[in-house]
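<backbone_tokenisation>
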Amino acid sequence: MTEYLKRLATKVAGVFLASLLAVVAAAQPFNVLTFDWPTALTIAGSAAVLALLEGLAGRFAGDKDAPTVTR
């Protein structure tokens, strides 16, 4: 169970950071003071929630220690 939770946490954190960085990289030019942070965090949070749900569904499909549905 702890291996599963470690993998799931890593997956969710990775998806959150990757999607946040993608939104930041898409801003031309990027200015930390005028950047639309609430929208960027909403997009990243939504992607992380979807990754969490996919990881939870993966718990019941196949390998109990793999937080993914696809292999």
In short: The first helix runs from residue 2 to 26. Residues 61 and 69 are 6 Å apart (CA to CA). The mean pLDDT is 88.
